[in-house]
Amino acid sequence: MATLELSRIHKTFGGTPVLHGVDLDISEGEMVVIVGASGCGKSTLLRITAGLESPTSGIVRIGGRDVTALEPADRDIALVFQNYALYPHMTAFENMAYGLKIRGVPRAEIRRRVEEAARLLDIDALLARRPRQLSGGQRQRVAMGRAIVREPKLFLFDEPLSNLDAKLRVQMRAEIRRLQRRLGVTSLFVTHDQVEAMTLGDRLVVMNQGRAAQIATPMEIFTTPADTYVASFIGSPTMNLLRATLEDGGAGATLAAGGSIRFAQPVPGPAGRPVIIGIRPEHVTPEGDLPVAIELVEPLGSETVMHGTLPGGEAMTVRVQGTAPVTSGIMPVSLKQHLHVFDAETNLRLHGLASA
Amino acid sequence: MAGALVKERGAAADPALRASRARQRRDRWMTHGILLLGVIIFALPIWITLVGSTHDVNTIGRGEVPLWFGGHAVENYVAAWSRGGEAVRNTRAVPAGIMLWNSLVMATLIATGKIIISLLSAYAVVFFSFPGRMAFFWMIFITLMLPVEVRIIPTFQVMVDLHLTDTMAGLVIPVVASATATLLFRQFFLTIPDEYAEAAKIDGAGPLRFFWDVVLPLSRTNIAALFVILFIYGWNQYLWPLLIITDTGLETIVVGLSKMIGRGDAQNEWNAIMATAILALLPPVAVVVLMQRWFVKGLTETEK
Amino acid sequence: MRKGIIFKGKLLPLILMLPQLAITGIFFFWPAGQAIWSSLLREDAFGLNRDFVGLENFAEVLADPTWREAAQNTAVFALSVAVLALSAALLLAVQADKAIRGSGLYKTLLIWPYAVAPAIAAVLWLFLFHPQIGLIGRALNAAQIAWDYRLNGGQAMLLVIIASAWKQVSYNFIFFLAGLQSIPRAVLEAASIDGARPVRRFWTIIFPLLSPTSFFLLTVNLVYAFFDTFGVIHALTQGGPAKATETLIYKVYVDGVENLNLGASAAQSVILMIIVIAMTAVQFRFIERKVHY
């Protein structure tokens, strides 16, 4: 158990920068999830933490010690790979025991630890099997077991659930969370799946193009996204983003689609400043004077998602409880609560929650 | 300066860190060292030969092993190419030009022949159903197990009976049946989706037309890869040409070269022999180096 | 296999296969049958009568001390060539597989000897080890080590082994490299996170995962040493001195072509065929097993 500290991590692959100075502090026993679209640099960041890549510049500290130049073996970490990376010629037991054997742990101790981990993961009946005789979920558990028996300072997970089917993924997700809490090991988990990120992490790091766009708890990220990327990446269906200009005093804004809205607290800036108004589909009030031309209605049972366009051509999604008030034609809506205001140039959030 | 200082201090502060840096550096040097040694061991005989082929016969005969080029390159190669050596003491010496031509013709015919024959029979096995298909398949399989070398004497008898000794046909025909190539093409044809053939049928193409318009173009890379391997195989034939060719006009360069070396203590014309050796290995080496990608692909896939 | 018949017709496929059938029939099966048949016969001294003698030729061959010596030479030769060529190739392939500068160039420079004919490889090494004109041969003699492979049987054997192995390293190198590249990167990374240093990683992970490749190459190398090295021996030593480098295949050639002892030669051919078939069978059995990984 230890802290992890990444400071100003830069990485360039053959002239192409992939990480532009990422800072991240993880406290003891915390589980942090890095989430982002493919190619955002999240896996590279994890591999730098593991020591499988070295950063172009920046420092990695584990438990306060600078490990930037150390090899993976000397960092006392464990990594669960996306495709498990089990040794194909070894049994499940041998796979889990390998790291301990190398570290010269006595045989009896190895046996005790592997069996304990196997019980914990419910794979004690499978220890004599080779990886190819195991199902995807079982391989996943062996890979977890290999990490657990080492009792490392740090757990790293590289999209470990993405090769499982949907049902198993949900089950393993809960299990990983339960295990991590129980063992209390500091963990860094990489995924592209926002649901996985929201449910697993004490805190999330949303990465975008080699930068940490926001580092915060899942709820903070949901309620106060730091920029339009985070706003649209987290939440489903995604947040509506509408062009607008600030009105006098910042108390409200005029939508490009027509009509004006009021903010609860004024937003700083001169009149005419271009902004982007964000509102989640479930926060749109299905009555008012902003006409949405409905194009598609998706009834999901307990709720209904409606897709349409505003007069200016901007897309608008509305989520309502129960059945749809209209199934085609024009539906008037209004934007009153839970409004997010972003600068149109920098895409950054302009201040705290601006809702009426 | 300051950066170096900081780095220095950092390294000194953490012995594990310094050890790991040193280990990485040592590993890198080891790797380069081993590879370089390998390259040198591979290249040394060629280098000696190449250098030797540019000196006159007495320099080498005296045993002064030259390590750098001499000034007789042109005359040695001209002599080897056109006369098979300067003095032609050895009556069997054949001009390298003729031998190279023979080798080229033989290797090309063997490679092309093997590819054509294998393509046709693999096509028949995969796309048709006919009686004796499996028997045929096993027949190919067994030939795979019997290299020319183990049945050399009786095969020679057959050649005599068919009056094929001392002919180019005799050099080529007995070795153009290829189990490896047939198996490779069969393997590849099995990956061609049935739908292609079905679409061709609907378009009104018969089996030969389908072969020509679809199967052959799809096989292009496989053919190229195989050609490289088979050309080298053909060029490097030794025992077979040694047996059936007595006519010096049909001598191939690989066999001819070894015949140039006198068996006793006779004074050998080393410079001509070395020049001929270079000429003999140049074409197949050039093929491998220039077509490396295809060659590696062909090799690793035929033997799977 | 195919789901159904793609094209109908019986004549066309037979025509397509005719060249292959004819050549295999005339040049493979007929002579192989001849070899088996004449291995069971014996000609009298005048070549007039041929008697059926059963397995007598085989018994004679197996009891013949020169054949036994050739068999022993072959075993020593083939094993040495295989071990030397395999270990050198593995060492080089492991190095070339590392991400270092110039690895592409190294690969090219290590692959080309594949193209050199065994007989030419022999001549190239002769230029190095010839006692009078060879760089190394002269150096050895200058260092008071009596070196003449034309007189010393052990030295002759050493030289044919080196020349034969040298040529085969490239082939093995290509396959080892392909084998190394097919090991998933993540498995190696997992091992390094588990704390395995390079040497340990090699022996506990890489080497076991390469074992199908190694086994395949072992049989290929043995077959190579048995048959393809005829050219090396013929060009370098002609089986001498005093039959010290006479292998089984070379003996077949000598007995059949030079001594014209056809019955004995045929029996030897048949024995060689059995050896090849056994080796191939072992190889195929193993290839089936390798599916495990």
Low-confidence stretches of chain B: 1-13
Let me know the number of strands of chain B.
Answer: 0
CATH architecture of chain C: Orthogonal Bundle
CATH superfamily of the largest domain in chain B: MetI-like
Number of strands of chain C: 2
GO molecular function (chain A): ABC-type transporter activity; ATP binding; ATP hydrolysis activity
InterPro entries (chain A): AAA+_ATPase, ABC_transporter-like_ATP-bd, ABC_transporter-like_CS, ABC_transpr_MalK-like, ABC_transpr_MalK/UgpC-like, Mo/tungstate-bd_C_term_dom, NA-bd_OB-fold, OB_MalK-like
Pfam families (chain A): ABC_tran, OB_MalK
Family (chain A): Belongs to the ABC transporter superfamily.
What does this structure look like?
- The complex is a heterotrimer of chains A (356), B (304) and C (293).
- Chain A has 356 residues and is α+β, with helices and mostly antiparallel strands.
- Chain A has 2 domains: 4-228, 3-Layer(aba) Sandwich (Rossmann fold), CATH 3.40.50.300; 236-343, Nucleic acid-binding proteins (OB fold (Dihydrolipoamide Acetyltransferase, E2P), Beta Barrel).
- Chain A is 24% helix and 34% strand.
- Chain A contains 8 helices and 19 strands.
- Chain A has helices at 42-50, 92-102, 107-121, 136-149, 166-183, 194-200, 218-223, 228-233, and strands spanning 4-13, 16-26, 31-35, 57-62, 65-66, 77-80, 154-158, 186-191, 203-208, 211-216, 240-246, 252-255, 260-262, 274-279, 285-299, 303-309, 315-321, 329-334, 340-343.
- In chain A, strands 6-7-8-3-9-10 form a 6-stranded mixed beta sheet, with helices on both faces. Chain A has a 5-stranded antiparallel beta sheet with strand order 13-12-11-14-19. Chain A has a 4-stranded antiparallel beta sheet with strand order 2-1-4-5, covered by helices on one side.
- In chain A, a hairpin with a 4-residue loop joins strand 12 (252-255) and strand 13.
- In chain A, helix 2 packs across helix 3, helix 2 runs parallel beside helix 4 and helix 3 crosses helix 4 (136-149).
- The longest helix of chain A is centred in the middle third of the chain and has 18 residues, at 166-183.
- Chain A is elongated, with a radius of gyration of 24 Å.
- Chain A starts with a strand and ends in a 13-residue tail after the last strand.
- Chain B is mostly helical.
- Chain B has 2 domains: 2-83, no CATH class; 96-302, MetI-like (MetI-like fold).
- Chain B has helices spanning 2-13, 15-52, 57-61, 73-83, 96-127, 133-145, 152-161, 168-172, 179-190, 194-202, 207-218, 220-235, 239-244, 253-260, 270-290, 292-302.
- Chain B is flat, with a radius of gyration of 27 Å.
- Chain B starts with a helix and ends with a helix.
- The model of chain B is unreliable at 1-13 (pLDDT under 50).
- Chain C is mostly helical and 293 residues long.
- Chain C has a single domain (79-292), classed as MetI-like fold.
- Chain C has 12 helices and 2 strands; from the N terminus they run αββααααααααααα.
- Chain C has a two-stranded antiparallel ribbon.
- In chain C, helix 5 (118-129) packs parallel to helix 10 and helix 8 packs across helix 9 (198-228).
- Chain C starts with 10 loop residues before the first helix and ends with a helix.
